Amino acid sequence: AQSVTQLDSHVSVSEGTPVLLRCNYSSSYSPSLFWYVQHPNKGLQLLLKYTSAATLVKGINGFEAEFKKSETSFHLTKPSAHMSDAAEYFCVVSGNNNDMRFGAGTRLTVKP
Amino acid sequence: GAGVSQSPSNKVTEKGKDVELRCDPISGHTALYWYRQSLGQGLEFLIYFQGNSAPDKSGLPSDRFSAERTGGSVSTLTIQRTQQEDSAVYLCASSLAVGVEVPYEQYFGPGTRLTVT
């Protein structure tokens, strides 16, 4: 069975400063990992995905994540936060039957 | 092009009543998924369909929940004898197929907000 743990339920940063949203996963085999973003009153949107190719994955809106097997982590980062980045972020792990397990979510607040 | 659509967008029902939630996937997507998003519970996977078949129904919370898909397209999630703990946003997603080694990207609908009073 696979699962993810998002280590922070809420992260607050100032506009223009770096963003770090932490995710650790547990999987009995090579996982596929995703980050989804959910803006208020909108559906979930895929930010990026890792599927055993390059360990550093670049996504939309300047986000990227690095798969670290030794640390079982897949943290999401962005060099400079923008006000429009304020949203809920979900780390997701998927097995070979597309059974996707979502983390509890991290709410990102961006202060002006 | 059209994305995943769900109806109704909001549903308020009395405890004990049955409800039906509908999902229209993206045309051509053979895989369809149902999730539930509860306050404080995160996003919970319920069931997926490959075509009209649901290989694993163990994610459904109780036997009051059922789902079907017909014609490889529209899916309905039915909750019988609703309880207050069923209140949540029910999300549907679709993907081109169910990946064997690499999952396909899932596209999510806007959700149905269910409130049981």
What can you see in these coordinates?
The complex is a heterodimer of chains A (112) and B (117). Chain A has 112 residues and is an all-beta fold. Chain A has one domain: Immunoglobulin-like. Chain A is 0% helix and 54% strand. Chain A has strands at 3-6, 10-14, 19-21, 23-26, 32-38, 44-50, 56-58, 64-68, 73-78, 87-94, 100-102, 106-111. In chain A, strands 2, 5, 6, 10, 11 and 12 form a six-stranded mixed beta sheet that branches. In chain A, strands 3-9-8-7 form a four-stranded antiparallel beta sheet, with no helix packed on it. Chain A has a two-stranded antiparallel sheet with strand order 1-4. Chain A is globular, with a radius of gyration of 13 Å. The relative contact order of chain A is 0.34. The model of chain A has no long low-confidence stretch (mean pLDDT 90). Chain B has 117 residues and is an all-beta fold. Chain B has a single domain (5-105), classed as Immunoglobulin-like (Sandwich), CATH 2.60.40. Chain B is 0% helix and 47% strand. Chain B has no helices and ten strands. Chain B has strands spanning 5-7, 10-13, 19-24, 31-38, 42-50, 65-69, 75-79, 88-95, 107-108, 112-116. In chain B, strands 2, 4, 5, 8, 9 and 10 form a six-stranded mixed beta sheet that branches. The mean pLDDT of chain B is 90. The interface between A and B is medium-sized, with 22 and 30 residues.
